[in-house]
Specification:
The chain is of the alpha+beta class. The protein folds into two domains: 2-240, Bira Bifunctional Protein, Domain 2 (BirA Bifunctional Protein, domain 2), CATH 3.30.930.10; 255-327, CO dehydrogenase flavoprotein, C-terminal domain (Enolase-like, domain 1, 2-Layer Sandwich), CATH 3.30.390.50. It is 39% helix and 29% strand. The protein contains twelve helices and 16 strands. It has helices spanning 11-24, 52-58, 96-113, 157-162, 168-181, 185-189, 194-209, 219-232, 235-240, 290-296, 303-314, 318-327, and strands at 2-9, 28-34, 38-41, 62-64, 72-74, 78-86, 118-121, 125-128, 131-141, 144-152, 213-214, 248-253, 256-263, 266-273, 276-284, 287-288. The strands form three sheets. The protein has an eight-stranded mixed beta sheet with strand order 7-8-9-10-6-2-1-11, sandwiched between helices. Strands 12-13-14-15-16 form a five-stranded antiparallel beta sheet, with helices on both faces. A three-stranded mixed beta sheet has the order 4-3-5, covered by helices on one side. Helix 3 packs across helix 7 (194-209). The two termini are 37 Å apart.
């Protein structure tokens, strides 16, 4: 197993490096940071989640990775870790849930070393003091399993909220929820030296894998990154992928989602917290639809139950069915 400590990399390179390792079938742990601010979409995240015209005006790029996880803002205030394991390796877990538990343990142990009591929360978060402190994504690239995530030294909550493709009222609420549900090392442990954090995390990963060989950006790896660049930075890849939804389902943290949709002439927004709908707002022509709001508020996130409520008041159409799925968190 190799450890690649790569320091600062360009925004494209910070994502291409683990894609290239996986395509080459090279097992490795990569620790690095990005020199640029950018947004990164998960494999199944709709591009419509972001206001891409706003990002273009601000000169902020966007990358879509080939693994799961949500839409994230990445910048210099984060330490990235990428784990690449061939699927036939004895180290490769059979289940994705096992992969998260096993390969996030070094991250959790690093938080503990800093005096922060953190734990894994399925499916893909690390939480501490009730806040998400690390988001992660995993999937298969080539013949390898890949897990990628980051530790937040600090976070630009305002930019993240500003870039969301939501009405102004909901962007403000998204900002409030992020401040409530996300945590950084600066908040939880004070100022942390990034170089020391990298050293600690490398040591924890080395404990897990039983030692490392020193690694570097080989010529073969650089060539593979260049070969993949055209695919992963094309507009077709950015826009054509992603799961199509009847609106926006914004994950703030595991168990906390902000939802916005338009259906049958009604603009509907809600929060899904720990499996229950709340803070429901339904507007038709600028007027509150109190009956619909009251019917949905407090309902468990069960598709059929939500569909029954919507169909009774708005009719049963394919649009309504998709909206019910969205409100159920899917």
């Amino acid at each position: 197993m190799r450890l690649l400590e790569l320091g600062y990399m360009g925004w494209k390179q910070s994502q291409l490096v683990y894609h290239a390792l996986a395509e080459l079938g090279e097992p490795a742990v990569v620790l690095q940071r990005t020199a640029h601010t950018y947004f990164c979409l998960g494999m199944f995240s709709p591009a419509e989640d972001l206001n891409l015209s706003f990002l273009e005006r601000r000169g902020i790029p966007c990358f879509r990775r080939a693994i799961g996880g949500g839409t994230v803002l990445l910048d210099r205030e984060q330490l990235f870790y990428h784990v690449v394991i061939p699927r036939e390796s004895e180290l490769a877990p059979v289940r994705v849930s096992t992969m998260y538990r096993r390969f996030l343990k070094p991250v959790i142990d690093t938080y503990a070393e800093l005096g922060v009591k953190a734990s894994y929360r399925p499916a893909s978060d690390i939480v501490a003091e009730g806040r998400k402190v690390s988001g992660n994504g995993a999937g298969v690239v080539g013949e390898c399993l890949v897990l990628s995530g980051s530790m937040l030294l600090d976070f630009n909550f305002e930019l993240m909220a500003e870039a969301l493709n939501l009405p102004g009222r909901l962007r403000r609420r998204a900002l409030e929820l992020m401040r409530e549900r996300l945590g950084t090392l600066k908040q939880l442990a004070g100022e942390v030296d990034a170089a020391e954090l990298r050293r600690m995390l490398a040591g924890r990963f080395e404990d897990l894998f039983g030692g490392f060989e020193s690694g570097r950006l080989s010529l073969e790896l650089v060539r593979e990154m260049r070969r993949l660049e055209g695919r992963y930075t094309s507009r077709e890849w950015l826009y054509a992928r992603g799961r199509r939804r009847q609106g926006t389902l914004l994950k703030i943290a595991e168990g906390c989602y902000l939802i916005h949709t338009k259906l049958a002439g009604v603009e509907l927004s809600a929060e899904l917290q720990e499996g229950v709908l709340g803070n429901v707002r339904a507007l038709r022509g600028g007027r509150r639809q109190r009956e619909l709001e009251d019917a949905l508020a407090g309902v468990r996130a069960e598709r059929q139950k939500i569909l029954n409520i919507l169909a009774e008041r708005l009719g049963c159409t394919e649009e309504i069915e998709k909206a019910a799925e969205l409100l159920a968190g899917g």
